[in-house]
Amino acid sequence: MSVFDDIRADMAAKLTAAGVTATTNPVAVAPFVLVGVPTMTAAAGVGGWAGTFPVWIVTPPPDNVAGLAWRLDQLEAVYAALGFAPAYPDRWGDRDAPAYVLSFPTTVPNPAC
């Protein structure tokens, strides 16, 4: 398992421990909170890399008040478990599912150092 997968698994475990239905599986069936794959943006010296890990809060389409309420409840739970990250309304996947996406900044340590 890579250091990137370790971080994803750790984030998902923290969410699960907080009672959030979290996964790292991008083909999970909504509703779910997905810890996605990172976007790496810069070197953080020799010892690591800077980037962001997305967390998606997804409900099945079509959008409705109940789905929005669930996403907002999960948004609060994600903040309680992982801290603050910018969150934006979005859409998920080929079914165009209603979602929030959060971008958590992270420094990934270089395991070779």
Give a quick summary of the entry.
The protein has two helices and six strands. With 113 residues, it is of the alpha+beta class.
Beta strands, count: 6
Total of domains:
1
Distance between the termini: 17 Å
Going by helix content, strand content and strand pairing, the class is alpha+beta
The helix fraction, in percent, is 25-40%
Radius of gyration: 14 Å
| Biggest sheet architecture | 6 strands, mixed
- Tally of contiguous helical segments: 2
Give unreliable regions as ranges.
Answer: none
Compressed to H and E, one letter per element, the order equals HEEEEHEE
Shape: elongated
How do the strands and helices of this protein lay out in sequence?
Layout: H1 3-17, E1 22-23, E2 32-35, E3 39-43, E4 48-58, H2 65-82, E5 87-92, E6 97-109
Parallel strand pairs: 1-2
Antiparallel strand pairs: 2-4, 3-4, 4-6, 5-6
